[in-house]
């Protein structure tokens, strides 16, 4: 094991998030990381693109004016070069971005661009994928490498999707153990004091 | 070995001569380099970490266009033998999305066209008006596309019969909202 720089390549927060110093995070005040999230170098997260539409105040409803642009759950892993970008559309004649919500135990592979509205728990997205605007990915979905998920697509639970444009090509086997999908292990292998992955 | 001060961007070469309209929005972490001129016309929006490179020719970005983060405009062609000298010219209302690459060499993109996430436009390609280059599609160098063409990810092409005006209006509304979220720092590039 080579000695790391004294300062460390990662910033570790109180809740155990490991954020690379080489990641580009914009609008950090509008991001909620759920704890034990890993953000690798060259990840770009656009927290500055917040919702501007009056937060359903005209139609009643929610009271808290949420300015959260991106929210993630626990044990998410964003590989090198990932771009997370809240989707935007015209809403009541005005353009507005909408918040992006990511569940627990979500893995996103290298150089994937995500503009989804919602990603459920235990989702695994391969590398070089494009997740279109306002796509909704439900729980335990697997998106294979290079898939282009079109805008507004809804992917049901336990699907495997692939292709350009992405289609459902199979089902995640029942009890195949997506429970942990190795993200806890992966979490401990990065950071300033990486553990040996074999342990 | 540790560097004294962390550099957030690549050590900049000589600044390219720029010609901005006063209504252009460009943040300080956009990357402009090269030796030829870079012209950006009015009300255009450049996102952080977009990269405009004028080493091989001048870059023109038309009015009310959007260049998103990590888009690269004016990169060196992959096939350098077939490359012709020249820069890149984008029309008005052009949207260049995340990770898109537009090679230099007299490349032209017509008004109202959208270059979607991760696609690549080859050197010298001439793309008509209101075209859509879908996500991760590739346009070969020197291709000439008629107006309102859609290039799909698998390389298929078809005509787009929708009216393009709605899309331009959307682009304009998007610019008007997002320009307030991005800190404009034109002076850095002058």
From TrEMBL, chain A:
GO CC, sorted alphabetically, is: dynactin complex
- Give the region (Disordered) as residue ranges: 173-199
Keyword tags: Cytoplasm, Cytoskeleton
* SUPFAM superfamilies linked: Trimeric LpxA-like enzymes
Gene3D superfamilies according to UniProt: Hexapeptide repeat proteins
Localization annotation:
Cytoplasm, Cytoskeleton
Q: Where is the composition biased (Polar residues)?
A: 189-199
Descriptive protein name = Dynactin subunit 5
Q: Which organism is it from?
A: Emericellopsis atlantica
From TrEMBL, chain B:
Q: Name one GO cellular component term.
A: dynactin complex
Species name: Emericellopsis atlantica
Compositional bias segments (type: Polar residues):
1-10
Q: Name one GO molecular function term.
A: dynein complex binding
Which keywords are on file for this protein?
Cytoplasm, Cytoskeleton
Record GO biological process: mitotic spindle organization
UniProt-annotated location(s): Cytoplasm, Cytoskeleton
Alphabetized Pfam families for the sequence: Hexapep (PF00132)
**Region spans: Disordered:** 1-20
The UniProt entry's sequence similarity note says: Belongs to the dynactin subunits 5/6 family. Dynactin subunit 6 subfamily.
Purpose of the protein: Part of the dynactin complex that activates the molecular motor dynein for ultra-processive transport along microtubules.
> Which InterPro entries does the UniProt entry name for this protein?
DCTN6, Hexapep, Trimer_LpxA-like_sf
Entry protein name? Dynactin subunit 6
């Amino acid at each position: 094991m080579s000695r790391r720089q004294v300062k460390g390549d990662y910033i570790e927060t109180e809740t155990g998030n490991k954020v690379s110093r080489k990641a580009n995070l914009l609008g950090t005040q509008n991001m909620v990381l759920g704890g034990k999230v890993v953000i690798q170098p060259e990840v770009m997260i656009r927290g500055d693109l917040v919702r501007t539409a009056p937060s359903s105040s005209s139609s009643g409803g929610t009271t808290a004016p949420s300015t959260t642009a991106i929210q993630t759950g626990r044990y998410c892993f964003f590989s090198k070069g990932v771009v997370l970008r809240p989707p935007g559309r015209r809403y009541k004649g005005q353009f507005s971005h909408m918040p992006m919500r990511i569940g627990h135990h979500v893995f996103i592979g290298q150089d994937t661009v995500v503009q989804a509205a919602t990603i459920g728990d235990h989702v695994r997205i391969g590398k070089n994928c494009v997740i279109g605007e306002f796509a909704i990915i439900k729980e335990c979905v697997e998106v294979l490498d290079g898939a282009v998920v079109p805008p507004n697509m809804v992917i049901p639970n336990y699907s495997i999707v692939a292709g350009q444009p992405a289609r459902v090509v199979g089902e995640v086997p029942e009890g195949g153990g997506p429970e942990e999908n190795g993200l806890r292990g992966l979490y401990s292998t990065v950071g300033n004091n990486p553990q040996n992955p074999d342990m | 070995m540790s560097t004294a001060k962390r550099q957030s961007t690549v050590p900049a070469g000589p600044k390219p001569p720029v010609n901005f309209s006063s209504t252009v929005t460009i943040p300080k972490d956009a990357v402009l380099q090269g030796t030829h001129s870079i012209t950006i016309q009015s009300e255009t929006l450049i996102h952080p970490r977009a990269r405009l490179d004028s080493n091989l020719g001048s870059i023109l970005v038309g009015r009310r266009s959007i260049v998103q983060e990590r888009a690269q405009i004016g990169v060196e062609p992959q096939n350098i033998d077939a490359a012709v000298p020249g820069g890149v010219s984008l029309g008005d209302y052009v949207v260049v999305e995340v990770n898109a690459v537009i090679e230099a060499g007299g490349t032209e993109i017509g008004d109202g066209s959208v270059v979607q996430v991760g696609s690549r436009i080859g050197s010298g390609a001439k793309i008509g008006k209101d075209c859509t280059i879908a996500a991760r599609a590739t346009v070969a160098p020197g291709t000439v596309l008629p107006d309102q063409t859609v290039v799909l990810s698998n390389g298929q092409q078809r005509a787009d019969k929708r009216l393009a005006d709605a899309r331009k209006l959307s682009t304009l509304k998007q610019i008007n909202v997002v320009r307030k979220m991005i800190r404009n720092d034109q002076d850095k590039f002058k």
